[in-house]
Amino acid sequence: MGALKREIEVTLAEVTLTATGKPLSRTRHMLSAGLIWPRLGTARKSTALPVRLDRGTLPGAPLPWSQRVLFKEGVEGHFAFEVALTEALSDAAVEAFMRALSGHLLKLATGRIEEMEPPTLSGNLAALPLSYLAKTVLKERAPATLASGALDLDASSLPPSGQSVRWTIPLTASSAIEREKARRSARAARPLRQVIVPTGGVAGSVVVEALVL
Asked: Which of 92, 110, 134, 136 lies 20 to 30 A from 116 at CA?
């Protein structure tokens, strides 16, 4: 008997960051997500969304569906869900990536992404779409991954059609998250840097909702 096949719609529900490494209370990031081996013959599916955080969390008011949806895909047997969140970006950087993503979704869908080198951002596969766009479209370095995480899942554990389940993905820091701390001496040339979250430390979480279609 073959593995149970299900169809799911995955939407972003919550994002919580312990620290962004920036003094600003409001920051913008790119969130990339990936389904790893969702079904036989499909190694991965990837997507990305811009997110605006207020003191490290999504705004209280629900975002429109178009700004939350990540996937509508079929899954079977064992698969994994992975997310990565970039460092805080300027509005211009986020908008440039979104324009590039919109114009190159077809290339991603038709396998052109396979021509790229393996991901280098701490080996994180969910960050590959941003690395791909930065290298092929924007011709510049991909934004650094602030934190990432993954869950191993199984289609057989999904609820019946019409019901949903929430997945909480813990985020760990890809490298130490630091912030500047003013020196007390007026003669000091550089500000001190204080480690808020060490490399591999818990940096927050992402919650997504999977609706079984």
From this structure: 92
| 77: region left, alpha or beta (phi > 0 left; psi from -120 to 50 alpha) | left
Degrees to nearest 5, angle at CA 12 with 45 and 95: 75
For residue range 20-58, what is the model confidence (pLDDT) as tens digits? Answer: 777 768 888 989 899 999 999 998 888 888 899 998 898
Q: Give residue limits of the domains in the chain.
A: 5-212
Q: Which helix (H) or strand (E) holds 157?
A: none
Identify the three-state secondary structure at position 137: coil
Distance CA 181, CA 51 (A): 27
- Degrees to nearest 5, angle at CA 134 with 152 and 27: 70
Residue 56 near residue 20, CB atoms below 8 Å: yes
Provide the 10 A C-beta neighbour count for residue 153: 21
92: amino acid identity, one letter? A
- In 3D space, the residue among 123, 102, 122, 8 whose CA is nearest the CA of residue 50 turns out to be 102
Whether 64 contacts 46, CB under 8 Å: no
Q: Taking a C-beta distance cutoff of 8 angstroms, is the pair 80, 141 a contact? A: no
Q: What is the pTM of this model?
A: 0.79
Taking domain 5-212, whether its CATH number is 2.60.40.150 is answered by: yes
